[in-house]
Specification:
Length: 716
Amino acid sequence: MTSTSESRAPGPSQAPGASRTVGADLERADARDKVLGRAPYAFEHPVERPCYAHAILSSVPRGRVTAVDTDAARQVDGVITVLTHENAERLASTEDAELAILQSAEVAFRGQIVGAVVAETPEVARHAASLVRFSYAEEPHESELKPGESELYRPDSANGGADTDSEQGDLDAAMEAAAAESGAVTLDETYVTAMTHCNPMEPHATIAVWQGDELTLYDSSQSVHGHRDTLAEVFGLDPARVHMICPYVGGGFGSKGEPHAHAVLAALAARALSGRAVKLALTRQQMFTLVGYRTPTYQRVRLAAGPDGRLTGIGMDAVEQTSRIKEYAEQSANPTRTMYAAPHRRTTHRLAALDVPVPSWMRAPGECPGMFGPEVAMDELAERLGIDPVELRIRNDAPVAPESGKPFSSRNLVACLNEGARRFGWQDRDPRPGVRRDGRWLVGTGVASSAYPVNRVPGSVAGVHYEGDGRYRVDIAAADLGTGAWTVLAQIAADALDVPLDAVALRIGDTALPKATVAGGSSGTAMWGSAIVAAAQTFRKRHGHDPSPGDHAQAETPGNPHAERFAMHAFGAQFAEVRVDADTGEIRVPRLLGVFAAGRIINPRTARSQLIGGMTMGLSMALHEETVTDPRYGLLVNHDLANYHVTANADVHRIEAHWIDEDDPYVNPLGIKGIGEIGITGTAAAVVNAVRHATGVRVREVPVTLDKVVEGVPGR
């Protein structure tokens, strides 16, 4: 794999020092510790005399446990206890049904926790767990999303953080008018995205230790304070009595943004053992039902455009699934509200409540699947109109936010499209599909736009402490799940304090530190960094540039006076080259190129890593990732990395991530926008559009497996 990036910010030729750390291309502060194995992940923290828990999952999709036989498991040497609903502690709060484990005999989905074995070693715990026998009274279940058959309802708007439906003008009338106008074009198609799972390399794991009524958790978490507060409520504790520690996270992609049932199980098991620490790590198979996933989506997209390609109507109706026990709504129609100008607009969300595990966050929830259907639809519209797909997007660029009418704080989508087209060599593209060959390979290129909102999550607090000898300590309970927080927050702090980078010691990932908001929604660096800048400014006002050891200051992320005045988003353009084997339909992507407008870049090296990671994950969505359900048994069939393929190095060739200079003083004091998620949005659509250009086959469903294209390949 090769990759490139570009930024006009200070590079390595400008050695970091006072006032020059932000923008420097620095290696990760935690890189050496991770490579050498010195960075402890959740399961690796040393605790005295740990024992080990192994979760037992239900083998029926819906029903009730009628009997439990634990005799054989209890007789295994090394087994300490077996927990089931019959002997588990009653929780103080069962309002969150996902976390209310072992509280009743009810089974809501296949793969739900119904018991656990605690033993002296993980091997004994796992073996003994296989000996526990459950009897069930099964009930009828529904575990397959069928938009035409499943009962659909409008989700609670509070669940998704936005109104679920929106409408302006009259979309139906716009469609009818375009259908009657000579040269105008309408499009009404349905696009489908698969159920997918986050699959971070570090499995979800927790160590729980009770000391009286105080609980310490070492947990793989994107939000130590958020997890602490939730678990404190579940166990009826003052949050001050729960201490959560997580300095390093081995990936998350959103799945570690909220606590899941395994953390409750670890704490329940530890409470039952009178002070011994309990270690629990989920297996890869268990992660498929216990830590969330991206719901499959069905997206009906409607477009109406005049002969000049300008949209007169745009609509998106999204249908998704949720769990019957807990609602989660992926806001997949939201990007349609942002992307393109059209006077007549309509978006809706509908859910089917099924007997399935609880869906949750996965990188760019809403925006990632929600960019797929509309961006493929725009490609189809361009083809029907005979307009270049880059030009079509430019013609429909929105001068103001399409629904609110607010001006954008900055919107450089057109600049990204033009720069991407130039770098990619788009001007040499023959628009005819299925005509370019290289031996047995059919070659095509595609484009799609990317977008992601600038999310504001208030509540982060940072502390600055002077330790003497010119050295400062900066504290904030942020999380680094591979995104570079250890590095970029130290850069921001050094800049704000006007000291060299090596004069700053950063501490993160511990509820003993000042509160930090979740590492999610591409908001972490902006929110935490703004708190650090505010704390540094407060420190200098209070103590000047000649402080005494022990001097300190603390500050919260400041409010944004521009928040209601502007619409705030990052934008980008994705370009893909695809090769399809004319005999087998095998698909290869030798080149991806993205150009992004994401405000100020703090560290080009970590920024490039995030953008390339997102694009790689988008490629994985386009060609590989799909969780398959057997609806007869409510079973996720390919629930491991042997059968659920994630794009690996062998699948990736050349990925280029570029960005343009963008000065946006309105988004936050640092002028930065999130980059963790925008890279994934649009990528799958660009790949699918390139498949169409290569083969002439229009695929409206991902992943694009060879069976979807092979019959339509020219010459077969």
